[in-house]
Amino acid sequence: MEFRLPDLGEGLHEGEIVEWRVKEGELIAEDAPLVEVMTDKATVEITSPVAGTVSQLCAAEGDIVPVGKVIAVIDEAEGGSAPAARAEPAAAPAARAEPAAAPVMASAAAAVPPPPAAATATATATLPRPVASHAGPASSGSKKVLASPAVRRRAREAGIALASVPASGPNGRVTRDDFARFVAGAAAPASAAAPAPSAAPVAAPAAVPAPQPLPAVSGDVEIIPIRGLRRKIKEQMTLSTSRAAHFCYVDEVDVTELVALRKRLKPKAEKRGVKLTYLPFIFKALAAALPDFPRFNSHIDDAKNELRVYPWYNFGMAVDGPDGLVVPVVQNVQGRSLFNLCGEIARLAGAVRSKKASIADLKGGTFTITSAGSIGGLFATPIINYPEVAIVGVHKIKKRAVVLDDDSIAVRQIMYLSMSLDHRIIDGADAARFMNRVVELLEDPELLFFESL
User: Fold this and answer.
1) Fewest beta carbons within 10 Å, which of 89, 189, 442, 453?
2) Whether residue 427 lies in the annotated active site
């Protein structure tokens, strides 16, 4: 049988072959692991629909293939049968509607994050996806052209049909460098015909210079292909830093009372089978502060020049997974108790570290928290999980000598919080007010718990 890359749902139209779990000529059992594929949402392990011998692998590790393309040929074992689903292979990519572009850590084919009522029924092994944009002038011209989601998005925003861009990638794929060269070439004649200086210029997308080849090297240099999750992280970080106008705000928190409260509550948490860390308290404080600062909990749609402000709080949390940074999402934070948050945070972190996080675990984020305090460092300036507009960094708690209001000196537990924001949406004064409120709640944490634990 010809095994085609299946439609993995969520509007995905292509995937990267990360790792083959079999070799040509190898026997494979039905439902045994066949291939690991990275989509714009998650790394997915695909199993074999039949038992037999793998006679041909039609794509190499690192290749990006469209849904519906044959990626392997399996000679079925005698008497073996394949599931009914293989009778109708996925439609060829040319016939599929163009989905919204997306990054990694971060997902593609964006939809509005599910409201609390649907949250439990509802991921990349990467970052929440950007807000879906309407099809622009380039949509119809890019449907039949192979290109990454990032390139498709740039083409839509620039109003350029991808079919008009000379392609140098495999199978006629338009690479980012192809698109950058095309934009740069088109910009030259346009500038010659520009209106007089008194006329208001029309904003045009900045041309991205093509990367220069590295000089030849000799000796034992290790060459590591950037694939899978690391490639998605690279794309997402580049997207965020090129789009959002980052600025960082840092403040310190006297968490002496929080340390004492956690110590008192740890035995109660253990009786409920959860380990109480500081992160659930941070979640509770942020969720309590956000109602007064709704724009912090939003997505920006640059294509439509709109801001989508969400009334529910789905917090992504950056987890140091075995293959890199992954951002699972705790849905409906505002509706969870402290101990419930403990359990969900632990479940998601465990799923990422065991590489078993599902797409549902990783989608729908509206705000992100990253914590490296257990590793070390004073503070950092995190990168926004675009299209979100704010991210909070939680850092190490350390004993310090502090001058109190009565001018006495005491040893207190001090922690830094750093927050990166999109200055296009959030002003510095609002950042300071928001952080003041979070600091107030963490310094007097019992204010958080007028609800049942």
Assistant:
1) 189
2) yes
Q: Are 104 and 126 in contact (CB under 8 A)?
A: yes
Q: What is the pLDDT of residue 98?
A: 38
| Candidate list 31, 134, 292, 427, residue with the active-site label | 427
Cα–Cα dist 303/197, whole Å: 27
Residue whose pair of structure tokens reads 């001090």 in the numeric block: 414
pLDDT at residue 211, rounded to an integer: 66
DSSP class of residue 208 equals: P
Angstrom distance (rounded) from CA 311 to CA 284: 16
CA distances from 82 to 35, 49, 59, 79 (A): 17, 6, 21, 10
Buried b (16+ CB within 10 A) or exposed e, 117-144: eebeebbbbbbbbbbbbeebebbebbbe
Question: Which residue among 63, 423, 430, 444 is the active-site one?
Answer: 423
Separation of first and last alpha carbons in the chain: 55
- The per-residue pLDDT for range 116-140, each reduced to its tens digit, is 443 333 333 333 433 333 333 333 3
| Structure-block tokens of residue 398 | 């350390």
Predicted structure pTM score = 0.60
Of 151, 147, 102, 150, which Cα lies nearest the Cα of 127? Answer: 102
Strand (E) or helix (H) holding 57: strand 52-57
SS3 content of the chain, % helix, strand, coil (to 5): 30, 25, 45
Q: What is the dihedral of CA 421, 422, 427, 428, to 10 degrees?
A: 40
Q: Name residues of the chain where pLDDT drops below 50.
A: 80-112, 114-143, 188-205, 451-453
395 belongs to the catalytic site: no
Angle of helix 428-443 relative to helix 256-271, nearest 10 degrees?
60
Q: What is the rounded CA–CA span in Å between residue 26 and residue 369?
A: 44
User: At how many degrees (to 10) do helices 279-289 and 256-271 cross?
Assistant: 110
Give me Rg for the CA atoms of the chain: 25
Compute how many other C-beta atoms are within 10 angstroms of the C-beta atom of residue 22.
18
